Amino acid sequence: MMGDRPSPPRAMSSAATTSPSVDKVDGFSRKSVRKAKQKRSQSSSQFRSQGKPIELTPLPLLKDVPTPEQPELFLKKLQQCCTVFDFMDTLSDLKMKEYKRSTLNELVDYVTVSRGYLTEQAYPEVVKMVSHNIFRTLPPSDSNEFDPEEDEPTLEASWPHLQLVYEFFIRFLESQEFQPSIAKKYIDQKFVLQLLELFDSEDPRERDYLKTVLHRIYGKFLGLRAFIRKQINNIFLRFVYETEHFNGVAELLEILGSIINGFALPLKAEHKQFLVKVLIPLHTVRSLSLFHAQLAYCIVQFLEKDPTLTEPVIRGLLKFWPKTCSQKEVMFLGELEEILDVIEPTQFVKIQEPLFKQISRCVSSPHFQVAERALYYWNNEYIMSLIEENSSVILPIMFSSLYRISKEHWNPAIVALVYNVLKAFMEMNSTLFDELTATYKSDRQREKKKEKEREELWKKLEDLELKRGLRRDGIIPT
Amino acid sequence: MAGADGDDSLYPIAVLIDELRNEDVQLRLNSIKKLSTIALALGVERTRTELLPFLTDTIYDEDEVLLALAEQLGNFTVLVGGPEYVHCLLPPLESLATVEETVVRDKAVESLRKISQEHSPVDLEVHFEPLVKRLASGDWFTSRTSACGLFSVCYPRVSSTVKAEIRQHFRTLCSDDTPMVRRAAASKLGEFAKVLELDYVKTDIISLFTALASDEQDSVRLLAVEACVSIATLLPQEDLETLVMPTLRQAAEDKSWRVRYMVADKFSELQKAVGPEITKNDLVPAFQNLLKDCEAEVRAAAANKVKEFCENLPEDNREQIIMTHILPCVKELVSDTNQHVKSALASVIMGLSTILGKDNTIEHLLPLFLAQLKDECPEVRLNIISNLDCVNEVIGIRQLSQSLLPAIVELAEDAKWRVRLAIIEYMPLLAGQLGVEFFDEKLNTLCMAWLIDHVYAIREAATCNLMKLVEKFGAEWAQNTIVPKVLGMANDPNYLHRMTTLFCINALSEACGQEITTKQMLPVVLKMSNDQVANVRFNVAKSLQKIGPVLDSNALQTEVKPVLEKLASDTDMDVKYFAQEAISVLALA
């Protein structure tokens, strides 16, 4: 949007001497100073324009009534807490907002310490109260193009109540008296679906609570596990292929990380499909940096479970290798090193050729951070041992890039690193190294010749096309 | 001789296939983009028997290559031997229609839709429709998503049994397990409805529409709103009330703002589709609600439609509806808390004046315009100013000029350069409407001030603005009011301002004509060739190249040539370069 760009700082306009050396009015000093926002923006979509003031009749404290009456009072309090307030209007219903806040606080304490309060009638009421408060259509993002890396998140205005509701719900799920067999009637697929949609909340505090809630539900409701995984799949697929926008990807991946950890062996086809068709494509998303750590963790978890997945995973990463974004390339190289740290030598052999072709491209990247990150592999002892075992394959792939960079790269630090790598190769396999050095020139010439042949072939083909065209148009006779 | 079927010895398939397999993606991509050339070399028969099977078998590549392939295959009918053989293209396109990447899949579907038209009715049933069925019952969601786009192209040309099957498949996909497929089906619902027989629209389509419109995911529900437009257009007026309106009413009050937003966004189309009676009874109150929605996003979308909605109201009681139902909401929006809402409204509100006529405009709208001209948000003011022409036609601009001036001045000095840029762009238009006197008196100083703005984009736009003003007011005006000021800047201590003089001369010389250019501008340019700053000197060379064609040959030879020759031996290499370029372009060597 037009109004969102900060204007560049005003340049001095009074440079008043005629000497060219002093006459430097720099109109280009663009510091991207972003003015700190006056206040964090808040938003909420809970309000349904009721207009009328809300009246709740105050109830006695739970601890002030005899134990037998407590369950009944507990239910009444739950019902009262179903009332939702408008927090965008900071002046309305102040008393009642405070009353609900203290009631919620009381409920949190009550479920933590009390025993025997969880009657069967309480379950639907708890779920109803939680649903009324947390399930809502999330408000539109404040900035048109919300950039999670740059922009401040919009915080949920009703957090004073919402936080307590989440707190209460988690205590309820974790309570010793909690019985999933009763709760599953109320915490069902529809409930979970709405819960998952909330992960798109811009408010990181809310997503953090949701993570715990979902984790508990996944742990306690065996019947919902497959459904939860499938819906997360759907969220990710939509994120990758349709919208590229979902705030809770990192949190969902974090949960998945621990779920993958618990998968039984051999892995089901469903889980492998999830790895190849969902987790790998997640690497293509623009905002990868926001969840890359969690994603790489999930991938490595899979490979530690089942090393035979190494080949499809590495091939997948190579397929989606970033073409223009150097920061992402550095992330990919980092992830690849994590994978190589746990790779089995038999798997390494299967994938080494395409892998080192890519590494050789990275090493010769003009962006020194990319080149540097790739060259760091040679500091990793385990990777070094793998390279050494397979030097007869890897050395020919790497050689020409390394040789060229050692003469041409603009960055002296990179040249120095490359010298070390070449030295290591020389020590590893001096015969092959000498051979490659000797044939370097003739190889280049052969490549050039091939290149020329290609050009000629295409030229011939194009001539043919042209002739056909002319013939079709009747310009030259057939 | 290399006949119509290519030549084996010249173009062995292996060589061509090597090209398609090249290790370098860029080369592979280039080869795929020239796939038609390869096919041409091979001839139609070998394209069918060798090239297409190769393509079908080896489809695993970078998405970018696949995208190019999917696109190429859509234009391949001639290369495989014409419509008779077009079905050979189906296998590779089928594989492409199942890949993950959306753009590839969409392109494959687009190509399939294209070549479906080239199938004979028999081939359509024998080859094409089975493919659609396979896709529709694929395991992974991608193939089912692709199938959704193919039903409507084969439906009209197949037998009634196959038609029944197609309807059944579409029904199944509308209640698919994955929301991605339901979204794809919902987005094709309108298109599919158009090719169905009316009876099936009333039964099948309506029930699907109702189901999708109450889907658990709002991303599906909102697509049903789009379909609503097409469906309503197809049905006879008397069926609309029972078949469509309940769903539409529900969508306008959906609990998700995204759905309500969609209704607001499609409001004009909906209005046309349901006709004047339903508009009066249902859409007017619905529109009022959308204008008062609790979510700013929705209000902004509705505000954007105010003019169009009013314009399309039935003429007999249009004015009454606007005055009693719409205008009160509009008045509230003028002081909305959200700037996007206000600015959306500001971009259309002026259009109401033509609909309501002079008296209503002066009495009811003018106060709103004036309020918006004073709005705190620059975008709102800008939108009002940029639409002045509508008001100009109805009540004349004088009514506004008192308030206009402070608004323009404030925008001209706004801290955000993009706002300043926008107002500059309206200057020529304003100048035309306000007249030369008003302009000289009030706006000229602003236009000159922009020339020394600290942002280059503003100085550049200001230069261009001067040129347009001269085109409007003429050379004489230029000579009296702006040329002296522009030339005065040549002595400014700031080299950026000195360069602005040159840029202005570049822009103005043509509009001002030979005399002014030669007598007033040229001496200044020539004098600046002694500037201390190299950037100024090479811009002198560039300016001379630019204004050269306006000058006479005498001036070129006696005045311009020596200066360029001097610059061509400058110590700075850029100055030399541009001086030499000017010498050769002006043919002074």
TrEMBL record, chain A:
SUPFAM superfamilies, per database record: ARM repeat
Family matches, as InterPro entries: ARM-like, ARM-type_fold, PP2A_B56
Example of a GO cellular component annotation carried by this entry: protein phosphatase type 2A complex
Low complexity bias (residue ranges): 41-50
Any Pfam family hit: B56
GO biological process: signal transduction
Gene3D superfamilies (alphabetical): Leucine-rich Repeat Variant
Region annotated Disordered, chain positions: 1-61
Segments of skewed composition (Basic residues): 31-40
An annotated Gene Ontology molecular function: protein phosphatase activator activity
Transmembrane regions: none
Similarity-based family: Belongs to the phosphatase 2A regulatory subunit B56 family.
Designated name of the protein: Serine/threonine protein phosphatase 2A regulatory subunit
Organism the protein comes from: Betta splendens
Automatic annotation (TrEMBL), chain B:
Residue ranges occupied by any Phosphatase 2A Regulatory Subunit A helical domain in the UniProt entry: 89-270
Superkingdom of this protein's organism: Eukaryota
Entries under PROSITE patterns matching the protein: HEAT_REPEAT
Record keyword Transport present: no
One annotated Gene Ontology cellular component of this protein: protein phosphatase type 2A complex
Entries under SUPFAM superfamilies matching the protein: ARM repeat
Repeat among keywords: yes
One Pfam family named in its UniProt record: HEAT
Cross-referenced Gene3D superfamilies: Leucine-rich Repeat Variant
Stated family: Belongs to the phosphatase 2A regulatory subunit A family.
Protein's name in the database: Serine/threonine-protein phosphatase 2A 65 kDa regulatory subunit A beta isoform
Native species: Betta splendens (Siamese fighting fish)
The organism's taxonomic lineage, starting at the top: Eukaryota, Metazoa, Chordata, Craniata, Vertebrata
Gene name for this UniProt entry: ppp2r1bb
